[in-house]
Specification:
- The complex is a heterodimer of chains A (about 180) and B (about 200).
- With about 180 residues, chain A is of the alpha/beta class.
- Chain A has a domain at about 85-180.
- Chain A is about 30% helix and about 20% strand.
- In chain A, strands 2, 3, 4, 5, 6, 7 and 8 form a seven-stranded mixed sheet that branches.
- Chain B has a seven-stranded mixed sheet. Chain B has a two-stranded antiparallel ribbon with strand order 6-7.
- The radius of gyration of chain B is 33 Å and the shape is elongated.
- The chains are: A alpha/beta (about 180), B alpha/beta (about 200).
- Strand 1 of chain A pairs antiparallel with strand 9 (about 175-180) of chain B.
Amino acid sequence: MAKLSASQRAYIKKRATFHEPGPDEAAGELNIVPFLDIVVNLIMFLLILITTIGFYSQVEASLPSYSRGGVGRRAPEEESLNLNVTVVENGVIVAGTGGKLAPGCESLATGRVVTVPRNGNRYDWAALRECARKLKERFEDETKVTVSADPMVEYQHLLSAMDAVRETNEGDVLFDEVLLSAGVR
Amino acid sequence: MSEEKASMAQVKRIIRKKIKRHPEHEHQEINIYPMLDMMTILLVFMVMQFSSSTASAISQSSELTIPYSTSRVDLGDATPIQISRSAILVDGVQHVTLRDGLVDPSQKQGGGTGFLITPLFREMGRVRDLKKAIAAANPRRPFTGEVQIIADQRTPFRTLAEVIYTLGQTEFNQLRFVANKTPTLGGGGPASAAAQ
């Protein structure tokens, strides 16, 4: 075989070098892989955020409305409950048309009575729910409850009181029309 | 023994041989454009959904810890009012400064015993007028008087009562309290348990 000179070897090397095309050179397209990475990460981030939003719920309440009373109008035939739940420092007071309810929610009581006293240093929401259930048995058509609290009672306790009187553990509706009274005792 | 120098034809033959060893580059990539289209649509959809949600305005911190509730009602769309330990914000803009969750008497009509928070009353009056103007122009968006209250779980009822009273004075009487979902009655969070 004929001998190759240095210049011929260099020429062969230059012409025979195989150039592997990059992903962006393959068909004259843009390299979209980094963009794809960003989009995938953003989707995952947003999916996680949306899952977090799913943890929020809302508790509905309204303000009591004033209505004009008519002179000489007849009193309603049926006795209404006018349920009032007030969260105080040492428990929860449940009151109706007749007055405050005594512990156990079976009878009325007078004086500085607390219907559902605190159980140790915690409010007894299960007992309040049981009390609301007993009242619902006697006043089946009643759905309204007015919720109020002492000035320094925390907002969490107010929401817990609304939860307790809204439905039973089984999900049966008790008093789901909550009116929030801004009145302070 | 001296060898002859290779001819140009021989050099070209060698080049052709070397090139033949490398097969021509084949396009074997998966076509990812449909996936890319789908992902972009998903991304736009999620960004729109997130930005329209009031929950995007909730950022919990030591100043604002959302309480817990057993309610299963999903969040709706209403004017958000945030009550943290240090401020009251309407639609993300601060209007009242609080001290340990209490409104300063100078910001209330009637001082310490008053219930009407003046800066909040002014702002909510403006929001009400705007919403009523929208309702007049577009009957499909009536004024419902709904507000979403995002309050810290330690907020004293006194402050809440003042806010609610002020809202009532500006015709916002449908209150929606935002809470964390929990199956446990009485609040499921550790902070709540400690507070009790």
